[in-house]
């Protein structure tokens, strides 16, 4: 049985370039050394830290899988005839030439062993790591490299240029030139060396400048000092320790695409909503068309055909293309296309209330304030809801806070469409819907936009009023209401007075009553705002009560003044914790009501639970409060 270790797995081998590192000259006791060498070479080839020298490999890292195939040799090392060294190794690798730089072994035996040990589509790039420190390597259908040499990773990259991208040597070596005919296919079809200084295959790159200088036609290459021209003054095919030239990088990139084949998949579990999968979305443009007309370029992920104007029966198509800049010729070779149609049934129910039963359907509501209910979420999936005009609520008979629930995760597309479902698989999509309602929470889908329409200072002032009057977190609906009032012309002080009236409606929860004395009011505000369980000190109490009695302050303006004063303690050795506590409560309020848009099903529940969450906040910690909310990080993304 093959001794195969996975080093990197980014996807199915059918759509990846699979690198197989093969051990040569490692004894059974040296397996760990081989695996360490293989990992080191993999990092050198694909790691961004070596990006200057390994490009374009690191740019296309997600195109690759890698494994290490260990084959034990009887003896360690490799044959070195010039040094009178002969060892018994599995693939009979030998370092030829006066300096041993031509290193290779039984290529056919390597190919057969790799073919027997891996699936047919899982060994596009075979690299034999030879356990020797003496510089050497070779290309061909298999790349060979001296694993112990200090320049080993550069040797590997150079040799891969031969074996994978069809690159030729650019250095001059008259002693071997006669062995490499200029009529050989590899030379006549080379992307970076040519027998003509004017009719060059890299014409699309002429004049391009990078760290190697300017792409042009420089005489010398393919082991010859004259009669051959190369694209750049230097490159890795000439000297180690420098980058590949632009035409060489292009050859690699095109070879990657040839190896991975059909890299694009387009799927749809919700009508009109298409999920895209590529090895790395950042490498591509995504051109969407509806009935042949371009409608949108996206960055991958999901495409909302209905939001882009698609209607029932329309044809939806996608074309992807490489945007890395590494490819100027044969860009069409990087393109992939997929096509689908909007064939799901479209329902147009009348009336304000509708219970959804059918799966795989598109629901277009009228202009009413609709309540759309999904009473059996486990069976009514694959539904796209367009609430239309009006204020619409999509209601689920399930919990949001239960991670095992089919409705546990919320996301939002750039189109504004909200996705509801499992962690990686949405089951419902909603547009023109203002609120989601679950059996434990409500989610206000407009509060983020409204919160961003006022200043951060104004938003925090509103949130602090909830702390001062109720010592609780704001619910999203309530906060959204007061944002609207603020934008409509009410001042923070006026809103503070309104909070006082609202607080008296829930005396059991808030402690406020219509008959509350001025002294009791001041003490409550001190407790809630300044974190003082005993209330105000006598001096402060007398001061604030006197101002209320004289009419210098209303309830709202007094609260605003106390809140402002609390922030002046920031950094104070004695009272700095007061400002920190208030800041932390605002931080939790932002997360609960704005970032997550949460609220409870009744005003009483909002007060009781909001107070419990606020009570868990300290001057140094908010995690206990976040945990009490019961929503996990990453569960709601509505930004």
UniProtKB/TrEMBL annotation:
Signal peptide extent:
none
UniProt xrefs under Pfam families: DUF4214, Peptidase_M64
DUF4214 domain residues are 513-563
* Species name: Undibacterium terreum
From what superkingdom does this record's organism come? Bacteria
User: Recorded GO terms, molecular function?
Assistant: metallopeptidase activity
Q: Which InterPro entries match?
A: DUF4214 (IPR025282), MetalloPept_cat_dom_sf (IPR024079), PBS_linker_sf (IPR038255), Peptidase_M64_IgA (IPR019026)
Q: What is the protein name for this chain? A: DUF4214 domain-containing protein
